[in-house]
Amino acid sequence: MKKIKEKINIFSISKFFLFLAIIINILFVLSLIFGFLNLLFHDSTYRLGQGSDFYAFYQAGYNILHGLNPYENVSGYYIVPYSYNYRYLPFFAYTFGILFNIFPPLISYWIWVVFLLFLIWYTCWITYKICKALNKPKWVSYVAIGMWLCFSPIYLELYMGQTTLFVGLLTFFSFYAELKKKETKGIILWALGSLIKYIPYLITPAILSSGRTRKVIYNLIISTVAILSFGFMLFLYFLDYNLETTGKFYAHNGSFDLKNLIYLIGNVFASNDSWFLKNNKYINIILIITFFGLSFFATIYTKDYLYSSCLLVCSYYLAFSGIWEHHFTFILPFLVLLWIRDEKIADKKKWFLIFVLLAIPTPFYVIDSYNLWSFPFLLLYKSSKCIPVLILFILILIKAYKYPRQDNIVDSIKKLGNMIYIGLKNPNIENYTNIFIQGD
Length: 440
Known about the structure:
Layout: H1 2-34, H2 43-46, H3 52-65, H4 90-100, H5 105-133, H6 138-149, H7 152-160, H8 164-179, H9 183-196, H10 204-209, H11 213-230, H12 232-245, H13 258-269, H14 274-301, H15 305-319, H16 332-341, H17 345-359, H18 364-369, H19 377-400, H20 409-425
C-alpha cells in the first residue's frame, strides 16, 4: 500500500512539474516579445541587445555574398543593427549565414527563434518516444519533457539567437539515431553539429570507446573536406581569433567558467591580479590536464558510454574559458539522458537536483539591483553554474568506476583497443555500446 501511494505521489509531482515547465516555456516566448525576463540575466541586461549573436551570423553571410572575409566588418557593408564579431567555424557562415540573408536581419532572427522553439518541442516528442521504447514509467517521461521546456539558459540562447542549443539537440538526435540502429544518420547529425561548433568533438573518445570507430573517421573526413572547401586560411583565422580572445574573459561578469572563480578567490588573498596574469597559462594547463585527463582515464576504464560522454562535456565547462550562461544548453541533453536512463531513484534525484541548480537563473538580478558586485556576493554568483557542474563531474566520475570494462586498467586498455580495432575492421551494429543502457 505504501509503495502504491509513493507511485501516485511521484506521478502527481511529475505532472505538476510538466505543467509548470509548460508555463515557464510560454513565459520564455512571451518575454522574447515583451522583455520582462531580461532583468534576470546578465547577457540580456548588459550585452549589445536582442539577437546580437544572430546578427553576427547574418553579417558573416552577408560578407561572403559580397566577396568579403566573414570574420571582418567592413565599412559600408555593415547591414545589421548591431552585432559582435563573427568567431565561429567558416561552415556556418557559408551555409546558414548565407541562408539567413534571404530575409532582412530582424525577420531572419525571428525565423531562427521560431525554428529553435519548434525544435525544442519536437525534441519533447522524441523524448517521449525514447521513454516509451525503453519501457520507462510515464512519470519519467513527464519530467524529462519538462526539463527541455524550463531550462533558463534556453531563454538566453533564444534571446541572443545563438547556436549552442541547436548543436546540443543535433548531438541528442545523433544518440537517438544510434538507439534506432540508424548509424549513418547518427554520423551526419554529429558531423553537422561539429561543423557548427567544436563542442561535439569533445565526446570523440567516448564515441570511440563505444566501438564506433568509423563514425569518428567519417566525421573527420567530412570536417576536413569542409575546411578545405571553405578555405583553410579562414579556418586558421578562426583558430587565431578564438585563441586570442577566449583567454580575456577570466574577469568577465557574464562568464561562468571555473577559471573565472579561481580568479575571483585568488584576488581575495592578493592585492591585485598580477599573480593571475603571470600564471594564467599554467592555470589553463592544470585545468585541462586535470579534468580531461580524468575523463580520458575514466573513458578507458569504464564501459558506460553515457558516463564517459558526460565527463568529457563537464570538462569543457570546467577547463575552458569564456563559458557564457547560454553555453549550458549543451549540457541539458546529457542531464535528460541521465534522468531517463539511470534506474535508481536516488540517482535520479541527484541528476534532477543538478538540473534544477543549472536551470534556475543566477542571482544576477538581486546582485545587480543592489549593486552587490563584491566578494562574497560575487562568489555566490560565479559559483551558481560552475559548482553544480563540478559536483556533477565528481558524481559521474565515481559512478563510472562502478562499471569497469575489465578487472584492471591494463585489461581495460586491451579491451578498448580491441573494440576500436573491430569497429574499424568489421563493424557490427549489434556490438556497439548503447548509451541508453546503464553500464553499456
